Amino acid sequence: MTVRLTQYAGGGGCACKIPPGELDTLVATLGGGASRPKEPAAELLVGLDGGGDDAAVVRLDGERAIVTTADFFTPVVDDAFDWGRIAAANALSDVYAMGGTPWAAINLLAWPRETLPMELAAEVLRGGREVAHAAGCQVSGGHSVTDPEPKYGMSVVGMVDPARMLRLDAAEPGRALTLTKPLGTGVLNARHKATGTVFDEAVAVMTELNRDASLAAVGAGVRAGTDVTGFGLLGHAYRMARASGVTLALDAAAVPFLADARAAAVDGFVSGGSRRNLAWVAPHAEFGALAEVERLLLADAQTSGGLLLAGEVPGYPVVGEVLPRGEAPVVVRG
Ligand SMILES: Nc1ncnc2c1ncn2[C@@H]1O[C@H](COP(=O)(O)OP(=O)(O)OP(=O)(O)O)[C@@H](O)[C@H]1O
Ligand SMILES: [Mg+2]
After folding, report:
1. How far apart are the CA of 33 and the centre of ligand 2, in A?
2. Which residue has the higher pLDDT, 120 or 18?
3. Which end of the chain, N or C, is less surrounded by CB atoms within 10 Å?
4. Which residues contact 325 (CB under 8 A, 6 or more apart)?
């Protein structure tokens, strides 16, 4: 029996995230003094202020802080091993998005044990372990539950130098904007789910670690960054602009895309999540005369996407610049 894992998922990959506006409202209910421990065992350096960063960070000592994050999602590709690799690269990514190094991870698994063989679950875990080990990250332990819809990911703990973190709220006017992976995994995953066509380039991009990009950014003195995932480039740019009190200007023509992405969007393989991303950002963005399909591509929900960085990083394309806050937090130049 050939199992097509994507057929067991409603939304796939980071496109299955709760929409950004609804998440904002939910997270806002957790804010304020009531959310702090009375006698904290550790100082919180990055928390939910400004809508929340990629990971929570608590101080360990003068030079070191612990980064902690978790990510899991439904199958984004049919192949079990590849899905495991993608989910692990995506979970590790939030540590890299803080400028940190992942140290240890545990598996988070939800599995329809009555309809899918456990051997396939083992393949998923094997893929995840391979990518985490390539990152130098220990993988030991986890948690597994039965669920009609398969889900997989990791909880990851890492280390970061608090003086050299990549924060969401630290983008400064005058900096260039850098994007370290091409966009288009959302539309290609949607086409893969609908037709079974495998896009090797998309799988290669989604399994690639953000480690080198993160190291290069920290080395170049960059202090603001985030990873581009389910809310798309536009959504994550808006979150960074909002948290930093600036405007992010994107040059649409400079944004890199996977080769088959535009055709997939034109042919209508656009997820509901990507359309919601665009609807969420549109009231806060100026698009000029940019065509609708180009707007949708910039809002495309990415799975295990690259880093969006406020600063120039050798080897990676500049896609815009940080400006003082203008009328709109996001400006797209055609
Ligand atoms: N259930 C929750 N309770 C508290 N905070 C949450 C919850 N869900 C999400 N958040 C916080 O909301 C913010 C935005 O969440 P989101 O999942 O987009 O961030 P992320 O972990 O960077 O995502 P990604 O893994 O796609 O890069 C984060 O700071 C996250 O910690
Ligand atoms: Mg993130």
Report:
1. 24
2. 120
3. N
4. 241, 245, 246, 247
As for the ipTM of the complex, it is 0.93
Does the C-beta of 30 come closer than 6 Å to ligand 1? yes
Q: Which of 103, 36, 28 is nearest to 68 (CA)?
A: 103
Q: What angle do CA 249, 162, 238 make, to 5 degrees?
A: 20
Averaged pLDDT, 48-76: 94
Contact 326, 241 (CB under 8 A): no
Known binder of ligand: residue 300? no
Q: Six-digit token pair at 263?
A: 């055709």
Query: What is the structure's pLDDT at 28?
Result: 85
Q: Determine the angle formed by the axes of helices 272-281 and 185-195, rounding to 10 degrees.
A: 150
Give the integer Cα–Cα distance in Å for 277 and 328.
Answer: 16
Beta bridge partners of 320: 177, 250
**Active-site residue list:** 14
The reply, when asked if residue 71 is annotated as ligand binding, is yes
The pLDDT of residue 10 is 82
Cα separation, 78 vs 162, whole angstroms: 39
- Cα pseudo-dihedral 38, 39, 44, 47, rounded to 10: -20
CA dist., res. 186 & res. 297, Å (int): 9
List, for residues 233-269, the tens digit of each pLDDT value: 999 999 999 999 999 999 999 999 999 999 999 999 9
User: Which residues are within 8 A (CB) of 309 and not within 5 positions of it... i.e. 6 or more apart?
Assistant: 166, 177, 178, 179, 180, 213, 217, 222, 224, 225, 316
Is 306 near ligand 1, meaning CB less than 6 Å away?
Answer: no
- Is the pTM above the cut of 0.90? yes
- What spacing in Å lies between the alpha carbon of 95 and ligand 2's midpoint? 8
Residue nearest to atom 11 of ligand 1 (CA): 52
Please report the domains of the chain, with CATH numbers, ordered by start residue: 5-164 (3.30.1330.10), 176-333 (3.90.650.10)
> In the structure encoding, which two tokens stand for residue 206, read together?
């989604």
